[in-house]
Write a structure and sequence with these properties.
Blueprint (H helix, E strand, L loop, with lengths): L7 E3 L5 E3 L7 E7 L8 H12 L4 E7 L11 H12 L18 H9 L9 H13 L15 E4 L5 E5 L5 H11 L1
Parallel strand pairs: 3-4
Antiparallel strand pairs: 1-2, 3-5, 5-6
GO molecular function, one term: peroxidase activity
InterPro entries: Glutathione_peroxidase, GPX_AS, Thioredoxin-like_sf, Thioredoxin_domain
Pfam families: GSHPx (PF00255)
């Protein structure tokens, strides 16, 4: 059986990055988009990165264009957008699929570790549920990534401890990360 540290992804320069690089660190793996209603979460992710990086947090940004085409452009254009608008400093990988035939093997494994458990409560959660019912009536019953900015929290031992849908409170994510560091 594979574990987190057995996987590799390509960075925006096309070089393979082994998850082994992150051994002993807390890692947030997040599929991002530059043209999404959740794109402002880049700001909160960067704040967390700056706040906790010295204590062992890594943010692994994996842009994905599978949700309403909200991540157009090349890897360079995406990186430029993120650094210009959100001053991001965390590692950005190449644009990749997180669902389907061409999904990154890392995402196959992450979804096996933590499936979809719902969007929570509140207006954004209700809106996401309504949208997804139109796209996939059975969306609640599969582990697929539902939208941009789904976050997986991996502890220092390489265990997936939680999955945060984009509608979950970022304050809860901050508290969890802090507790794992």
């Amino acid at each position: 059986m594979s574990g987190f540290y057995d996987f590799k992804v390509r960075n925006m320069e096309g070089q393979e990055v082994s998850m082994e690089t992150f051994r002993g660190k807390v890692v947030l793996v997040v599929n991002t988009a530059t043209g999404c209603g959740f794109t402002p979460q880049y700001e909160q992710l960067e704040e967390m990165y700056r706040k906790y990086h010295d204590r062992g947090l890594e943010v692994l940004d994996i842009p994905c264009n599978q949700f309403a085409g909200q991540t157009p452009g090349t890897d360079e254009e995406i990186h430029e957008f993120c650094t210009l608008h959100y001053n991001t400093e965390f590692p950005q990988m190449t644009k990749s699929d997180v669902n389907g035939e061409n999904e990154l093997p890392l995402y196959t494994w992450l979804k096996q570790q933590k499936g979809f458990e719902g969007f929570g409560k509140g207006p954004k959660a209700l809106a996401m549920s309504a949208l997804l019912k139109k796209i996939d009536k059975d969306y609640k019953n599969n582990p697929d990534i539902k939208w941009n900015f789904t976050k997986f929290v991996v502890d220092r031992e390489g265990n997936v401890v939680d999955r945060f849908e984009p509608t979950r409170n970022m304050g809860e994510l901050d508290k969890l990360v802090d507790s794992l560091l």
